[in-house]
Design brief:
With 452 residues, this protein is mostly helical. 85% of the residues lie in helices and 0% in strands. It is globular, with a radius of gyration of 22 Å.
Length: 452
C-alpha cells in the first residue's frame, strides 16, 4: 500500500481525502443556499447560530482522528497490531464519551447554548430547533470523521472518500426533500444535516466490525495516558480546522469596527464560502498524506519522506497559484450565485477578493508543513506554526495595519499572515531539529512495543 513513487502515493492518499472533504464543504454551501432561497434571512440567521458548534465538533473529531492516526501508524509499521487496536479503541471511547456529553448537556441547556452562540430573541426559537438536531446527533458527526481517518490509516483511503461523498450527497438530497416536498422548514434543514454523518458511519462501520483490516473494535479498557497522547498529537489539526472560525470571527469584528456595515459583513460571508473551498483543498490533501508521512517516519525511510514532502510542496504551491488566478479572473461569477440581484455586493466582494486571496498560494504550503511536522511527531513545532497563522498574526495585523495604513488594508491581513508564516516555516526548514526528536519518538515507541 505504501510502495511506489511519490506521485503515485500522493494520488492514492491525498486526492481521495481532498475530494471527500470538498464534497463536505460544498454541501455546507448548498445547505446555506437552500435555507436562504426557501426560508429566508431569519432562517439563515438561525442556522448560522449552530455553525460555531458544528465547527468545534468537526475540529475535535479531526484532532482525535489525526492524533490517533499518527500514533497508530508507528504501531502498524512495527507490526504491533495489539497496540494499534488499543489506540484505535481508546480514540473511539474518547470521542464516544465526548459525543454523549455534548448530547446530554446540549439538550439540558439548549436555550442558554443558543444564546451563548449568538441567537437573538427574534431567532431564538428556530435556532433552538436547529441546534436540537445538531447536539442530539453529535456522536454520529464525531464518529464519521474518526472512522474516516482510521480507514485511511488502515489502507482504505477510497472507502473514506466514498463515505464522505455519500454523506454529503445525502444531505443535499434530504435538504430538498425535507424543505420542499415535505415542507418541514428549519427542522428539515437541521435533520438533513444531522442524518448525513449517519450514512457515512454506516458505510465505514463494516470495515471495522468485520475486521477487514488491522484496526477493529475489541473489548479493552481505554487508556487515559493514550487518550492524552492522542489529544496532544492532534492539537495542530484542531487549530488548523478551528482557525477557520477564529479568522471569521476576527474579520467580522474588524469589518464592524471600521464601519463597512452590512455590505462588508455580507461580502465577507460570500468571500468566506470561497475561502472554505480553498482551505478544504489544502486540508484534505494534508490529512490524506498523514498516514504516508507517519509510516515513512516510523520505518526510518528518510529519503522517501523528503522526496514526498518536496513533491507535495510543489503540488500545494501550484494548486494555490491556480486558485488565486481563478479568483482574480472569475471570482465575480461565484459571488453571483449568492447575490444575483445585488450588483453592489458582488462588485464589493470581487474587489476585496484580490487583496484577501493574493497570498493564499502560501496557505497550502503552510498547512502542508504543519501537517508534515504533526505526522512525524514534531508536535511542538506543528502547534507553534498553527497558532502563528491563525491566532497570533491575524489579530495583530488586523489591529495594526488599518491604523498604520487605512481601513482597506484589513482585507490583506490574512494573506500577510500566511506570507509571514511561510517565511518562518522556510527558516525552520533551514534549521532542522529533526534528528533528536525522531530518535526520541522511536525510542518511546520501541519501549512501549516491548511493554505490549
Amino acid at each position: 500500500m505504501y510502495e511506489g513513487r511519490s506521485p503515485a502515493l500522493f494520488f492514492r492518499f491525498a486526492v481521495p481525502q481532498m475530494i471527500g472533504l470538498l464534497f463536505n464543504s460544498v454541501y455546507t454551501i448548498v445547505d446555506g443556499v437552500f435555507i436562504g432561497h426557501r426560508l429566508g434571512r431569519e432562517a439563515m440567521a438561525a442556522a448560522a447560530v449552530a455553525v460555531p458548534l458544528i465547527e468545534i465538533l468537526i475540529s475535535a473529531a479531526i484532532a482525535v482522528g489525526s492524533g490517533a492516526g499518527v500514533l497508530i501508524a508507528a504501531r502498524l509499521e512495527m507490526r504491533d497490531w495489539t497496540g494499534a487496536r488499543k489506540l484505535f479503541n481508546t480514540a473511539a471511547w474518547t470521542l464516544g464519551a465526548a459525543g454523549l456529553l455534548v448530547c446530554a448537556l446540549g439538550n439540558l441547556l439548549l436555550v442558554p447554548l443558543a444564546r451563548l452562540l449568538g441567537a437573538t430573541p427574534e431567532v431564538l426559537e428556530p435556532a433552538c430547533a436547529y441546534l436540537w438536531f445538531i447536539v442530539t446527533f453529535a456522536p454520529f458527526q464525531l464518529f464519521s470523521f474518526l472512522l474516516g481517518g482510521m480507514a485511511r490509516n488502515d489502507g482504505r483511503p477510497r472507502l473514506a472518500m466514498a463515505a464522505m461523498i455519500i454523506g454529503a450527497g445525502s444531505n443535499i438530497l434530504l435538504d430538498y426533500l425535507f424543505m420542499y416536498p415535505l415542507n418541514m422548514g428549519i427542522r428539515g434543514a437541521a435533520l438533513a444535516t444531522a442524518l448525513g454523518p449517519i450514512f457515512s458511519v454506516l458505510i465505514l462501520l463494516p470495515h471495522f466490525l468485520r475486521r477487514k483490516g488491522a484496526l477493529y473494535f475489541v473489548l479493552c479498557r481505554p487508556s487515559p495516558r493514550d487518550a492524552g497522547s492522542i489529544l496532544m498529537c492532534g492539537m495542530p489539526s484542531f487549530m488548523m480546522e478551528f482557525s477557520i472560525g477564529i479568522v471569521t470571527f476576527l474579520y467580522n469584528l474588524a469589518i464592524t469596527r471600521h464601519c463597512y456595515g452590512e455590505l462588508g459583513l455580507a461580502a465577507y460571508l460570500v468571500i468566506g464560502y470561497l475561502m472554505l473551498i480553498i482551505l478544504t483543498l489544502f486540508l484534505g490533501m494534508a490529512e490524506g498524506l498523514q498516514p504516508v508521512f507517519s509510516r515513512f517516519m516510523a520505518a526510518g525511510e528518510r529519503a522517501r519522506e523528503l522526496d514526498m514532502r518536496r513533491f507535495s510542496a510543489r503540488v500545494f504551491l501550484g494548486v494555490g497559484a491556480v486558485c488565486c488566478l481563478l479568483i482574480v479572473l472569475e471570482g465575480r461569477w461565484f459571488y453571483l450565485l449568492f447575490a444575483p440581484g445585488d450588483p453592489e455586493l458582488v462588485s464589493f466582494a470581487a474587489a476585496r477578493s484580490v487583496p484577501y486571496f493574493c497570498g493564499f498560494f502560501l496557505t497550502g504550503f503552510n498547512i502542508l508543513m504543519i501537517s508534515f511536522w504533526q505526522a512525524t511527531r514534531q508536535t511542538g513545532r506543528a502547534l507553534m506554526f498553527s497558532l502563528l497563522r491563525s491566532v497570533i498574526l491575524p489579530p495583530a495585523l488586523l489591529l495594526a495595519l488599518p491604523l498604520l495604513l487605512d481601513r482597506e488594508s484589513l482585507w490583506i491581513c490574512q494573506s500577510a499572515a500566511d506570507a509571514l508564516t511561510a517565511f518562518f516555516v522556510v527558516f525552520a526548514l533551514a534549521h532542522p531539529r529533526r534528528n533528536v526528536i525522531e530518535s526520541t519518538n522511536l525510542r518511546e515507541d520501541k519501549v512501549r512495543n516491548e511493554e505490549h
